[in-house]
Design a protein that fits this description.
Its EC number is 3.4.24.-. With about 450 residues, the protein is of the alpha+beta class. It is built from 8 helices and 27 strands. It has 4 domains: about 35 residues, no CATH class; about 230 residues, Collagenase (Catalytic Domain); about 40 residues, Laminin, CATH 2.10.25; about 120 residues, Sandwich (Jelly Rolls), CATH 2.60.120.290. The strands form 9 sheets. The protein has a 6-stranded mixed sheet, with helices on one face. Strands 17-19-26-23-24 form a 5-stranded mixed sheet, with no helix packed on it. It is globular, with a radius of gyration of 23 Å.
């Protein structure tokens, strides 16, 4: 089958041509009105499991033998050894070269520039290849070694087919400077739940936690919005979530590939001692910034979301307030709820959570009046599933429910929770259909005493 490269951009009637790499790799075609960026499968899922005989750890990380031994024996590594050293100006420097003409140099430079804009780390082209350096190449996927590998005279960073998006390059460069995946942190269970039953069996290893002795988080809080976090459906066998946030309204936050989060920047700047360097430059002895803020290169505080003021001293909201979708909400009263833009077509890229909470001794019931989404496709390892658009309804398990698409829910069909909460998780990759509407009602539990 010849690859199909045509698609209809979701922008004013503009037609373009561009490869949708993840589907082309499999000889699959996609709906013509689907945005290519949104429909590409997570790059980690399309990566090979091995590269030149070397296994990719957690799908996109190459490890040195010492690092593999640390993983096998769950022992601590000499963390400082894997950090890039300071250059002549006292700031960390990462030399790099481009290997071949096929790699997207502009995308690589943009990714490195993004890191340089927000940290004190410098990336510099080099002609001296007899030293540790990054070698950007067009390989069979998106992957990198983790940190500086001393005995490598050129460690590969592969920016292959479909990898030349800013967020993906930033993610891989993050590995190259020493970042691991956020979901592998030892404290991850305090923030997310791993749904092992929804993971492709051969990929369960990608969800392993790292031992406390093997990781230094510099006392930075777990970040659902980190660019290093897996998406919620990474390696899903059925399009149900493999990772669920303990706070359901945060479900759409994880897996973003837009750019560095505040805590990503903070971690890099602590890891490479940037803040202390800026304090010295600004003639300050201590960092005056509060609430996870930090002194930046301009001698001003870099404040996290949810804070304001010269020193980030004013709390204005949650760290995640501006990252939660506008259509996500907590529902505590009976009434009609709908998909975004109903009765008009929903948009591509929707990530919408409805957390329905009934009073004590009541249970929520959801009765649909309309339901039409894009139907099933054979994109779950060749099996039929609700790949493009789907509504997940959780009535029993707070972390995973039943998935619906197409016209699978008839008007009048009801769903009743077994507790006083129900969770709806609506995600879309197309903009073909009107979506759904339903009535929320609360029903008393006869055996419950208030």
């Amino acid at each position: 089958m010849k690859p199909i490269y045509s698609w209809l951009c979701v922008m004013v009637v503009t037609l373009c041509a561009q490869p949708t790499s993840a589907f082309v790799k499999r000889g699959l075609s996609i709906p013509s009105a689907v945005s290519p960026v949104e429909t590409m499968r997570d790059f980690m899922e399309t990566n090979p499991e091995e590269v030149e005989g070397k296994t990719l750890y957690q799908s996109d990380m190459l490890l040195s033998e010492e690092q593999w031994q640390s993983v096998r024996e769950r022992k601590a590594m000499a963390d400082l050894v894997y950090r890039w050293p300071n250059g002549g100006d006292g700031y960390p420097i990462v030399p790099y070269v481009f290997d071949g003409d096929k790699v997207d140099r502009e995308a690589c430079v943009s990714g490195m520039d993004h890191w340089m804009k927000h940290t004190c780390i410098k990336f510099a082209p080099t002609t001296n290849t007899n030293q540790p350096h990054l070698r950007f190449m067009y390989g069979p996927g998106c992957y990198s070694y983790v940190g500086r590998i001393l005995y490598f005279k050129g460690q590969e960073v592969s920016i292959g087919n479909g990898c030349n998006h800013l967020g993906i390059v930033v993610h891989e460069v993050g590995h190259a400077i020493g970042f691991a995946h956020e979901h592998s942190r030892p404290d991850r269970d305090e923030f997310v739940h791993i749904n092992n039953e929804n993971i492709i069996p051969s990929q369960v290893r990608n969800f392993e936690k790292r031992a406390k002795s093997r990781i230094n988080n510099f006392n930075i809080i777990y970040d659902l919005s980190s660019i290093m976090h897996y998406s919620d459906k990474s390696f899903s066998i059925n399009r149900k979530p493999t990772i669920s946030t303990l706070d359901p309204l945060m479900q759409g936050v994880i897996g973003q590939r837009d750019g560095l989060s505040h805590r990503d920047k903070l971690l890099a700047n602590k890891m490479y001692n940037c803040i202390n360097k800026w304090l010295a430059k600004c003639h300050l002895k201590t960092d005056p910034c509060r609430n996870e803020g930090y002194l930046g290169a301009s001698c001003k505080c870099v404040c996290p979301p949810g804070t304001s003021g010269t020193y980030c001293q004013v709390k204005t909201g949650s760290y995640y307030t501006d990252k939660i979708s506008a259509c996500s909400e907590r529902i505590t009263r009976p009434g009609i709820i709908t998909s975004p833009n109903f009765p008009n077509n929903y948009h591509a890229g929707v990530k919408c959570v409805k957390l329905i909470v009934a009073p004590k001794c009541f249970t929520p019931r959801l009765t649909f009046t309309s339901f039409k989404l894009y139907g099933k496709s054979n994109y779950c390892d060749g099996k039929s599933c609700c790949y493009f658009d789907n509504l997940e309804i959780r009535t029993k398990n707070p972390f995973s429910g039943d998935i619906f698409c197409g016209t699978e829910i008839a008007a009048g069909r009801s769903f009743t929770s077994t507790t006083n909460t129900m969770i709806l998780n609506f995600q879309t990759l197309t903009n073909f259909y009107k979506g759904w509407s339903a009535e929320v009602t609360f029903h008393q539990i006869p055996t419950c005493r208030r």
